[in-house]
Request: fold
Amino acid sequence: MVIISSKHQIDGREVEILVEAEQAAAPAGYDYGEGRDQAPAARIIHGARNIFGEGLDLIENCARAIVSKITALKAAAPDEFEVNLAVKLDAAAGALIAKTSAEAQLAVKLTWKKLPQSQHA
Reply:
């Protein structure tokens, strides 16, 4: 499994979105995190991090990036759009966008609808 890192500036902070890709080996220089070189017991403890929380953070970061891009379209922005995300939770890699929805532990459907002008604050 190859994991591709995509970094974005969202609300003034840099966020990283990991995407699973269709290659046999990870790209050169991929950071496997602190757990790779630790003793087996330490890897188990390291792996017990809040992977579900990482998944929720990933979904939030994706949603913010999507809204930022759609908002930048201004007059060309659609009145309504929908995005489906397949999130895989992996003990070694953490939360990432799955290459297929069949591999996802979290299937998320995000829907946005433009408010009528009278409802804008």
